[in-house]
Amino acid sequence: MFNSSLSNSTILDALKGDNSSGDLVSLDDYLTKILPLHFQNYFLEDLEAFRQHTPSEYIDGLIKSLKAGKLSEFPLNTNFIKQFEHLKSLSSGSTFSSLSFTQGLIIGQVSVIIIFALFMRFFIFSEGSSRHKNPPVIAVNTNNSKIMSNVLKRGGKNRSEIKSSDPSIDDNQNEMTIQINNILQKTYYDVNTHKHESLDWFNVLIAQIIQQFRDEAYNKNNILNSLNLFMQNNSTNLPDYLDTIKVTELDIGDDFPIFSNCRIKKEKRKLEAKIDIDLIDRLSLGIETKLLLNYPKPGFMALPISLTVAIIRFQGCLTVSLTKGDEFVQTTSQNEDKKTDDEDNDQEDNSYFLMFSFSPEYKFEFDTESLIGARSKLENIPRIRSLIEYQIKKWFVERCVEPRFQFIKLPNIWPRSKNTREEKHNEDDTAKTN
């Protein structure tokens, strides 16, 4: 009366057209083809068992009642009712389970797609402000100093007994003012009317120094070796999700800075030389690394990242002055100050320094290239470019932009025998002189 139960070979034969290669069965094929065949097989087995335990007269009477529409008058068997309810609950439960799993899978995939689309839209492909404003200049604290905030102190060690008629000016400041006026008078330099100087000779001198530096870098690879050594020593400090950083490009340029419009400005306690500087060159550094995904296991996935940052132009006003060590206030923390020897501090206080800084109206131009991915690559992402450029400017402001400055201790230029040298002559030159 009923067909026999389906065998496992019959169920597997349903996917021969789609799975002839012997690969694993996909989820869609399982839900649409194999799972219905399993339910049909199970239903037919239960129905066959019910037919074997139920008299044929009872089944024939049930069929006649169904055809006549008088099922309510027919006395149903208790086993038949239980079997029917069992099949009904099994079918509804399986349908609900399959629908819940399918709905959850679809909702999860849609959520991941939406999150990935939002990330790509607002982080990767958002227009970063390539012309970022310069980082804010460090605020000046008027409570610590009236000249250069917490960087320079007001007073110094007195070395003269000259008294001033103005009680608001102390003896040391009066002495420095007199010295500055004497220097300007004896060098015939008027800060108000003197023309700006071109500094051509200085450009030639600086160009020779830079050229020597580049020759040593090319011949000895000292810069590249220093960078690689620095990367190796600090590899342990890198986060777990970042692989080793390798230097792929290093360009130290082939042009030279041009200094111009030098003018001397008179301050209360010192003379300052303000010089315009303009550099058009390419100074680049390229690195590559990998972004590691350590879930569910370490090194599960790696995303290659390649960055190249180049400075192509710099414009600014350089301020240079000579000063003494006792006029400085260190910007380091108290813990770092305790590590400094007192004798070294006393020697530096009595030494002269060349101080230089840049005005806040400087200008940086960058050429940043980024590449993320191995196969599907993302190139020159605006957000990454703006973040890198902002961090470089921030580093520059915290060290070299007023009121912060850098200073270089001037060496002792007094003639000494150990510093005496003479030019080395070749053998041909010696023979000619003889």
Automatic annotation (TrEMBL):
The chain crosses the membrane at residues 101-124. Residues 1-104 are lumenal. Residues 195-411 form the SMP-LTD domain. GO terms for biological process: mitochondrion-endoplasmic reticulum membrane tethering; phospholipid transport; protein insertion into mitochondrial outer membrane. Keywords: Endoplasmic reticulum, Lipid transport, Lipid-binding, Membrane, Transmembrane, Transmembrane helix, Transport. The keyword Endoplasmic reticulum applies. InterPro entries: Mmm1, MMM1_dom, SMP_LBD. It holds the Pfam family MMM1. It comes from the Eukaryota. Its main location: endoplasmic reticulum. One of its GO terms (cellular component) is endoplasmic reticulum membrane. Residues 126-434 are cytoplasmic. It is found in: Endoplasmic reticulum membrane. It is a single-pass type I membrane protein. GO terms for molecular function: lipid binding. Belongs to the MMM1 family. Component of the ERMES/MDM complex, which serves as a molecular tether to connect the endoplasmic reticulum (ER) and mitochondria. Components of this complex are involved in the control of mitochondrial shape and protein biogenesis, and function in nonvesicular lipid trafficking between the ER and mitochondria. The MDM12-MMM1 subcomplex functions in the major beta-barrel assembly pathway that is responsible for biogenesis of all outer membrane beta-barrel proteins, and acts in a late step after the SAM complex. Homodimer. Component of the ER-mitochondria encounter structure (ERMES) or MDM complex, composed of MMM1, MDM10, MDM12 and MDM34. A MMM1 homodimer associates with one molecule of MDM12 on each side in a pairwise head-to-tail manner, and the SMP-LTD domains of MMM1 and MDM12 generate a continuous hydrophobic tunnel for phospholipid trafficking. This is Maintenance of mitochondrial morphology protein 1. The lineage of its organism: Eukaryota, Fungi, Dikarya, Ascomycota, Saccharomycotina. The gene is MMM1.
